[in-house]
Hints:
The protein is of the alpha/beta class and about 475 residues long. The chain has helices spanning about 35-45, 70-90, 110-130, 140-165, 180-190, 220-225, 230-240, 275-280, 295-305, 325-330, 350-355, 365-370, 395-405, 415-425, 450-480, and strands at about 20-25, 50-55, 95, 170-175, 195-200, 205-210, 270-275, 310-315, 340, 360, 375-380, 435, 440. It is built from 15 helices and 13 strands.
Amino acid sequence: MNLGSETRSEGPLAEAPGPQKVLLHVAYPLWRKQPLMVMARAKELQDRGDEVVLTYCNSKAGTCAANFVGSPVACWICRNRVRSTASSLGLRAVPLETSNATASDTSLLQLSERKELAIGVQSAITTRFRTLPGDRSCGAIISAIKARYFRTASRLLGALKTLVRQERPDRVEVFNGRHACSRICLTAAESMQIPFNTLEGTTRQKPIIFEGHTAHDRSEMQKRIMKHDANEKVADIYYGRRRQPRTNKFARKHAPGFVPPKAAGFKKKVSIFLSSQDEFESLGKDWVSPFLDYAKSVKEASLQNPDKLFCIRFHPNQADVCSDIITPFREIAELPNTVIYYPNDCANTYTLIDWSDVVVTFGSTVTVEACWMNKPVIMLGPSFFDQLDISYNPESPDEFLELLRRDLLPKDRRNAARFANFEEFDFDPLRYVDSTGKTMVPKGFRLSHPWASQLARTADDLLCEAVKKWAGHRAKKKRCAA
């Protein structure tokens, strides 16, 4: 059945009127998808007549999102992977010198640029170590890694700005742009008033390119979503597949025989689905929420609505968060109108949605899923769905409490269908990238040093996991002592 076509939803990548000079930065050479997409994009731009400048970090023992421990061996592999792959593709690769002897003196960085770097560093630290910003219980080792990462990123940004002044590109491009490793390109582009694009991979493992914004710019992302058709047949298939353990890793953790609690004596049943706090914290200042304190919002809702039964469902992904997110809910669990399912508890998200009269989310994909299931949804805080009119979006805790007192109707499902069509069909094909359905693969070239890169990543992962476990143990010990 042909329900749709795999094409871009819009045309942001229209051909330029003439050849351009484009600077592409290879931000994460040790990883696989990131250099694959950047190299493929660079080769395609060069084929169409653009002048391409490929840049890469030339640190000897730098700390970054792909090398938190600062291994000189990992740096050596990074440098040589870029050089060898670029050479095989006929691309010009320019190293960003990061030693103190270069002209890129980091003291020349503006305060605004330093703040952007700090956000990028914190984003990577939060994502990797699953610790919330400001959590001091996680130890000196993570603080030291953060400081080293900031120094490396500062030198890299200084070197990049020096090169941009020399090369004067018409545009810069980089993968993602969230962590400091790639955020330097967007920071330099903004400071020097140069257009930029970001590359990403879709959930269907296909390339996608965003002109002038990143994949975490929720306003621009929702504009792109809204350009899709509201094809309900596609949406039925998409949301049906979301419920299947075979195609949704989180659905594998759902208990198939789960039975929701009995609600005798209560007027309404409300399910509250928590999100993984670190994921939103890692997205930066534009994602700051008035509902960041999940426990406070949930407790107040439960206390002020004793006639409603609240089921609070932790996200399974929260089981791995190092910061203490459980203790604030222990007191809530004692309330007579609350049932809490912690990250490792057996529950079933979709059974809970079916059971509910009202669904409350903190920005997760449950928002669109519940809307598609014809449930009224209250969404707390910013998300990729906050401009789709699929939920009630209170701007303050008081407004949230007022909504809970009302008899809410489900929102129109058409924009939930548009989101499903975006997920299914939106991508930007690249000539030198193919997809197996599970992963992207290079087409017509190969990435150099695959095994060495894998070993370097594995070594860094093992060391980071050791730091993470130590930090989690230390935080738990402090909680017990308190």
